[in-house]
Amino acid sequence: ILKTIELGPENVKTTVDDIPIPPKLLKDRNILSFQVDQHYTYDCEDPLHASLWTTVVGDTSMTLDYQTLPSKPDLAQFPYPLQDELNTYQPTKIGFTVPSGLSDASLEALAKTTVHLGQQNGWPEYTPFVAQGSEGENLVLVGTPDENPAISAVSSGFDVKLSGGKFQGGDGSALPEDTGVIQFIPNRYASNKAILVVSGNSPKGVLKAAQALTQNP
C-alpha cells in the first residue's frame, strides 16, 4: 500500500496528492491499482446505496514523474535502445534521414533496415518518421558519407575513422568498397537516444552492412 487517503469534506473539491513510489518496489512491468472502501452503516448495507459509490470526475489526472537513463548502444543488444519497451510511456519514434540522391543499393539498404525494425518491434507502437536535421530522437542514418552528410556530422563518435568522406582501416587506408560499416552510438543531442549508422565507402558496402544487420540473429 503506497498511501491511504480518507475521503471527507476537506478533499471533496480539487485535491492534489503526491505519492512517492519506493524504487525497490519497481520491476520490469508494474500495475498501479486504486481501491475504495466505503460504508454508511455497521449493519447490513444496501449495495446500491449512493454512499457506497465514489465518482471520479472527468478532469482527474495522474502524472508520473520519472527520469530516463543515458543510452549505451551495443550491437549485441540491437535493436535496444532504439526500441525499449520498458523505458518509455510513448510510442517508439525512430527518425530516418532520407537525403535526395540515394543510390538504388542504398535505398534497398534503407528499406531492409526500416522493415527489420518494424518486424522487431513489440510494445509500444512503432512510429517511423523522416528526420530533418538533428532531432533529439532515435535516428537511423543510411548511405555513404557522400550520399548522407548527416553521417559525417556524427562521425566523432565512431569507432572507425572517417576521413575525406572515406572510412579507414587501422593502417590508415580506405576500407574496400564492398565492406559495410555499422556504427551504433549515443545521440549527442539527447543522452537517452541512439543513432544507428548503416554505411560504407560505396553503395555496395552500404547494402552489405544492412544485410549483416538484418539477417544475423
Number of strands: 7
Q: Radius of gyration in whole Å, from Cα? A: 26 Å
The rounded distance between the terminal residues' Cα atoms is 43 Å
The total of helices stands at 3
Percent of residues in helices comes to 10-25%
Decide which structural class fits the backbone. Answer: alpha/beta
Polypeptide structure, described:
By secondary structure, the chain is an alpha/beta fold. Helices cover 16% and strands 19% of the residues. The protein contains 3 helices and 7 strands; from the N terminus they run E-H-E-E-H-E-E-E-E-H. A hairpin with a 2-residue loop joins strand 6 (180-187) and strand 7 (190-200).
Write the layout of secondary structure elements.
Layout lengths: L91 E6 L6 H17 L5 E5 L7 E5 L6 H5 L7 E3 L2 E3 L11 E8 L2 E11 L2 H13 L2
Helix pairs in contact: 1-3
Pick out its properties.
217 residues, alpha/beta, five-stranded mixed beta sheet, two-stranded antiparallel sheet, 3 helices, 19% strand, elongated
Sum this structure up briefly.
With 217 residues, the protein is of the alpha/beta class. It contains three helices and seven strands, in the order βαββαββββα.
